[in-house]
# Entry
Amino acid sequence: MTLLAYRPFIDPLQVAFPHLSDYWMLFSLPLLIGICLVYKGTKVADLSHLIHDAAKMLIQIIVVMTLAAVAVYVVYWAMCTWA
# Structure
C-alpha cells in the first residue's frame, strides 16, 4: 500500500507504518513535555519555578493516564471474562 491510498480512520496506521506500533506511546512524551512547559510558563509568577512545576504536572498527567488505562483494561477484562 502506498501513502496515497491511505484512508484515515478506515485503514489502520500499522499498514502505512509497520513498526510504529512498537514505539507509538513514546511519541506522547515530547508532546506532554511541551504542553506542560507552555501551560506552566503562562501560569507561574516566577520563572525560576517553571521546571519544577512543569515536571510535577508531567508526572501527574502520566500517573493519571496510566491509572485510567489500567481501569479501562480491568473493565474490559471483566466484561470479557463474565460475558
The chain has a mean pLDDT of 86. The two ends are 38 Å apart (CA to CA).
